[in-house]
User: What shape does this take?
Amino acid sequence: MMKDQYVRTEMLLGKEAMEKIRSSRVAVFGVGGVGGYVVEALARSGVGTLDLIDSDRVDITNLNRQIIATRSTVGKYKVDAAKERIEDINPACTVNAYRVFFLPETKDQFDFSAYDYVVDAVDTVAAKLEIVKCAKEAGVPVISAMGAGNKMEASMLEVSDISKTSVCPLARVMRKKLKEVGIDHLKVVYSKEIPLSPKHGEDPELKGGRPAPGSNAFVPAAMGLIIAGEVIKDLTEKE
Assistant: This one.
């Protein structure tokens, strides 16, 4: 009989915790530089059901940092590429792929009360705010990725409550927006590193009318792995 692929994880967490992980359903909003690594680590940890939400396709510029990005996946929807990868890692995992850009206008497609945990790894403030609001209203734990672009020091990443963050421009905006809707607390992963100024060439990629941030293979990856670790710890520590 084939060995259980999660035997090493069970050595750390125990059988009961592994059963909790296997019976858990986690939604990951955004399957890019950060979210792709979250998904990968959750699949390798034995999470039973993963909902992947992202409308983007894999682009050639994603090859420098996104775990799902390979020459063979360029052009594919990110959620489809991630689903194929997960099924190759753990065929027992149920993967629900949604080619949707999450916004207030599309939120009704998702039942947040069905999730055991929600991961926000999207880029836009409007989407992040709505994800957090929906999770909080449903009483579901949520963790949010702050800015990983224009950063070089993976060692400066921290897990914190949004109220205790500093330096990170995205965290500052999110603190303000969350307060406006009556949310004072949110678990986040952020960096105190002062963002670098990207050295754009003559024809920079534009994102929302602005030049896209510079990025690398290690800061988004480290942030994604930290987030996945927090999800697994929280799922297995629940009463």
